[in-house]
Amino acid sequence: MKRFVLTVVTLFFTFEVASAGNGGFAGAHLRFGLGAKAIAFGNSGVAAPPDGFSFYYNPSKISFVARRYVSFTHYFLSLDRVFNCISLSLPLKPTAGLSLSWIHAGVKDIEGRTYSGLVDEIYNTGEDAFFMSFSNRFFKKLSLGISLKILRNDLVEITGKGIGFDFGLFYNVHTNFKVGITVCDAGSGYSYNTQKLFPEQGSTYIDEFPTLIKAGFYLKILEKVELVSDIEYSDREEFKIHAGAGYTLSKLARVRIGLNNGSFASGIGLKYDFIGDIDSILDYAMIFGIPGEGVSHVFSWQFTF
Asked: Residue 18: phi, psi to the nearest 5?
């Protein structure tokens, strides 16, 4: 069993390499992108207009949320991977905003086999991140924000736990132009204690997440064209560019395309009245992953009231 657990751990980190392309470092699910709109924009969202997923890209945007948001997102992924999120964001008068969110990712239906190759058991692994995000506008157009993240990674017979922080700045220069800066996963990581699993050789091990610095802008042209871009630098010396464009077809529908560090994405969005004072925003994105990974589909549904 102990050899099997090591195999599962290896397979899980292989999943992280495939899903996020971040060199196999821990916390890949928190770099994958969130919300079909931002995904279709090439995983750009640092300075995009605030919505129910602002806590993920830039917590400082939450104080600009004018209504309450209940947001859901679900990814249809290959290789038996799962990724889901639920979030509540709300304004706090007169100048603040709060968001509570849960992200779950993992791999399901992993076959455990005996040394003779027969299927023994079916295993699942999972990572969870619980966000508590707060933002305040210190000036009419400028806000600062912070997210506290409680982290957990379940790997069959071993569990990693930790905390981390995101920090953000958002400047709403104009209705049609916005800029932002974030520091993501400051101090984030998993702490594992393997002494119960390996009494003689076990120890405490800390697997740190890469810390990311992002800067982005949003520009709207002629009331129908949106341009958005983020640049990202990791303390593991990795540099990425995210960019996207959108076009408003009508009051109801929008189309989007983007490049996530060279990987193509596209999507559509619908905004409509739901029930009474409740409005609904339904977004879809298609991600063309690395070779062998297949095409992934993302659906997001937000309710504002």
From this structure: -70, -40
Structural domains counted in the chain? 1
CA torsion angle 216 221 224 230 (round to 10)? -10
Listed in sequence order, the residues at least 6 apart from 222 whose beta carbon sits closer than 8 Å to its beta carbon are none
Question: Hey, what are 124's tokens?
Answer: 């699942």
Range of the domain at 121: 2-304
Residue 279, Cβ neighbours under 10 Å: how many? 15
CATH number at residue 284: 2.40.160.60
pLDDT digits over 67-82, tens only?
A: 999 999 999 988 788 9
pTM for the structure as a whole: 0.87
Check: CB of residue 149 under 8 Å from CB of residue 134. Answer: no
* Residue 98 CA: distances (Å) to CA of 8, 230, 281: 37, 24, 20
